[in-house]
Amino acid sequence: MGLDFTVVPAYLDTILIGVLWTIAITVCAALLSFFGGILFAVIALYAPWFLRLPVRFFAWLFMGTPLLLQLFLIYFGLVQLGIDLPAFVAGVIGLGLHFAVYNSELIQTAILAVDKGQMEAARTLGCSRSQALRKVVIPQAVRDVIPPIGNNMIALLKDSALVSVIGVSELTLSSQLAIGRTYRPFEFYAVAAVFYYIVNLGMEAVMRRIERKTSLSR
Amino acid sequence: MTEAHKFVDIRHAQKSYGDLEVLKDISLTVDRGEIVAIIGPSGSGKSTLLRAINDLDSLTGGEVWLDGVQINKDLPYRQYEKHINAMRQQVGMVFQHFNLFPHLSVRDNVTMAPKLLKGLSDKEADKLAEEQLNHVGMLERIDYYPSQLSGGQKQRVAIARALAMQPKLMLFDEATSALDPELVEEVNLVMKRLAEEHMTMIIVTHEMDFAASVCDRVIFMDKGVVVEQGPPSVVFQNPTEERTKEFLRKHLAQHHALNAAEAAALTAAQTNEGAK
Amino acid sequence: MDIELILKVYPYFLEAAVVTIELSVLTVLLGLICGALAAAARMSRFRLLRIIGAVYVSVFRGTPALIQLFLLYFGGPQIGIQLDAFEAGVIGLGLNIGAYMAETMRGAIVSVDGGQTEAARTLGLSRTQAFRKVTLPQAMRLMIRPLGVNINAQIKGTALVAAISVVELTYTAQRYIGSTYKPFEMFFLAGVLYILIITVTGKGISYLDRKVRLP
């Protein structure tokens, strides 16, 4: 059948909209996974047992199962509970929760790695434990953890392609729409790959800037 | 027509890292069986010079000749590799940080190169290893692993490893600088033994006492040049150059508790000896 | 939790688990081979090899695995590559994980202390000999744990082939969710099996890692 890239320009607008949606999903899920990660980490380390154990269990579950399976669970499971969410929201929640769990592991490590002396110093000044955590330990841990979390964010971008399977019109699905009309999968998937690669490079550049800015205040 | 050549002949050695000139036109020779110590402040280029002798860090200018053969770094890759590997088998090197192979036992550390490069059988290699390890006093730890040894023990094994290749020349790059003080003596003893057995040795060191007691000639380097060289009695007691005096003054002030009177008396006694 | 349903359908999930295991093993093997080749290429003397290695790693790590899979399976025929879904899954995912493993391997190799390579060279060993006898043995010990992380991720990554209708665990879960409308139960079944596979593999890796520890 051969290759014919001339079919692509006609669908460029669809594809570009798909790129925008991909970026939107990635950013929303990234934010969710960042703050969710901090929340889970704090609960896993410091909360009373009835909060800590469920969170730990949930984390164990989500780290041991594929993202795609989790997306199915969330999308169809919510419907079963009577909550009918648009695919976009289900996708963001799925991606966000999945990566929140991984981020929380990183953050827990970073919190524990913050020098014990920091907590001691804060306490001797009269701070309570939660104040010391909030004002001294966690800010430092968060700063230390930015580089590895940055890596997770980039993985999130690539995994965002999976939400196409539950019907979110991001880049992958948009490509499939174009393929449905032109029967030229190679061309459109190749173009999609290029766009993902470019967005990836962009994200890496953004991450590097964020890393630099947050490590400046040493 | 074979003219008598020097065992180690360094001619106009020059080494630059970009704009930084670490070695500036150094020429020096070493005779067979001679023990030479190179001393000097950090940054003087003494390690760089040592490492140029077996081409670990190639010179940017000048030549190195070992026992009549020049180290030729301009050969095409394959030939260069064969040439330099053959040359290196004749030159043993001992490092400041030992560089023992952690995944091999003491025995295997010592036998690996002879078996691989000289085709020795397991039995022959083991015999050689036992000989060398006995020589350095580490025979009973032959089946230990480096992680189970102290610093001094590791360095002695490193010396045995180098000796197992039966080199003609031994290079020591600050062999005891990384050791705790009480472990330095055991390594010095091994080096003294080697010296007594007439191994040609070039020793880069900070230990003036040891250098004075074991070497035939001391070379003082500073900022990439040889400032002064001569027998230890001359260089240490009666240096001619101001820079040498400055260096020794600083160094002696740090390491010796001799007061000025004692030092003067010592010098006086020795010049009397020399005059006899 | 509808236990009756679970008991009725679990045999299908067990069958699917076998497929997941097959996919995992094959993609990991392919990944290890590609990874080793790419790592070697990136450290080669020849600039062309270095570039090829770097491009492979960059492209396969810089684009989604799902797209790579679709490109190979759906787009392959256009350039003369006809693979069935299982084959496409193995090759596509294998190439993908190989890029990540290449980086893992390279990282382990460069972390081996340079002083030992120097020592080996001063004894007269060639670059290749020094690499084989000194660097590689140690790098291989170092890379077991991080490769285990790659492998762990890959087991979960096999789920992607559900999107091209390979009947493995995730596909089966989706299928039964579609027909029974019981997502939690199906997630539970598939989830338990995935976690089982991952845990057993993880223990195996830990065991291997411990065994090669130096005294």
Explain the overall architecture.
Chain A has 218 residues and is an all-alpha fold. In chain A, 81% of the residues lie in helices and 0% in strands. Chain A has helices at residues 12-46, 49-64, 67-80, 87-113, 116-124, 129-159, 171-182, 185-216. The radius of gyration of chain A is 21 Å and the shape is elongated. The model of chain A has no long low-confidence stretch (mean pLDDT 89). Chain B has helices spanning 46-53, 77-89, 106-118, 122-135, 151-163, 181-196, 208-214, 232-237, 242-255, 260-275; strands spanning 8-17, 20-30, 35-39, 61-66, 69-70, 91-94, 169-173, 200-204, 217-222, 225-230. The longest helix of chain B is centred in the C-terminal third of the chain and has 16 residues, at 181-196. The mean pLDDT of chain B is 88. Chain C contains 8 helices and no strands. Chain C has helices at 3-42, 47-62, 65-75, 85-110, 114-122, 127-157, 169-180, 183-211. The mean pLDDT of chain C is 93. At the A-C interface, helix 2, helix 3 and helix 8 of A face helix 3, helix 7 and helix 8 of C.
What is the compact description of this entry?
Chain A has eight helices and no strands. Chain A is mainly alpha-helical and 218 residues long. Chain C is 81% helix and 0% strand.
Topology:
The complex is a heterotrimer of chains A (218), B (276) and C (215).
Chain A: H1 12-46, H2 49-64, H3 67-80, H4 87-113, H5 116-124, H6 129-159, H7 171-182, H8 185-216
Helix pairs in contact in A: 1-2, 1-4, 1-6, 1-7, 2-4, 3-4, 4-6, 5-6, 6-8, 7-8
Chain B: E1 8-17, E2 20-30, E3 35-39, H1 46-53, E4 61-66, E5 69-70, H2 77-89, E6 91-94, H3 106-118, H4 122-135, H5 151-163, E7 169-173, H6 181-196, E8 200-204, H7 208-214, E9 217-222, E10 225-230, H8 232-237, H9 242-255, H10 260-275
Parallel strand pairs in B: 3-8, 3-9, 6-7, 7-8
Antiparallel strand pairs in B: 1-2, 1-4, 4-5, 9-10
Helix pairs in contact in B: 3-4, 3-5, 4-5, 5-6
Chain C: H1 3-42, H2 47-62, H3 65-75, H4 85-110, H5 114-122, H6 127-157, H7 169-180, H8 183-211
Helix pairs in contact in C: 1-2, 1-4, 1-6, 1-7, 1-8, 2-4, 3-4, 4-6, 5-6, 6-8, 7-8
Organism (chain C): Celeribacter baekdonensis B30
Family (chain C): Belongs to the binding-protein-dependent transport system permease family. HisMQ subfamily.
Domain ABC transmembrane type-1 (chain C): 17-205
